[in-house]
Amino acid sequence: MSAPVLVLASSNQGKLRELRELLRGKIEGLDVDTQVIDAATAGAGDVVEDAVTFQGNALKKAREISAATGLVALADDSGISVDVLGGAPGIFSARWSGRHGDDEANIDLLLAQLGDIADEHRSAAFVCAAAVATPDGTAHVELGTMPGKLRTERSGSNGFGYDPIFEPSGSGRSLAEFSAEEKNAVSHRAKAFEALLPQVIEKVNAVLSQR
Question: Is residue 47 part of a domain?
């Protein structure tokens, strides 16, 4: 088996599959199925996300996981930013209701907070910061956004998080009404990783060339 080169600073298998597909065929000599691994496989623990920006959290995770594993590391941090709330929930998106990962409670609270806000003032955006780092501490981060607005009630059954109440600009549908393929083509995460891809390729190629 080829030795790992790149580690994703997450144990989310969906994210790992997306990363492997993003890199498949783009780097000569890289076997994505064996050389691109998740944090658990690399023996890395969780990183405390205590930075105050998406970029800060992504960079911290990438740097710490790279230092711990000796591999090139990739990380991301994302959430929803509501204009009338001054950018909140932002980095607190996953725990807006006080319980981490409680999507329904998070949506209920956000809808209640915007209950008397007119449609023209419900603009929002999904934001993702993606970062890559090497064991020497060198790192690079890119930001991807998906603009839209918040609906007044849920619609659709696909996706997760705030997808049922977020309507991407010009779509006329909630993100939860998009297929996985449609979402991946326009999402904030896809944009961030695509922008970061040249840096990832450069750093992985540097490692492979030394072997």
Answer: yes
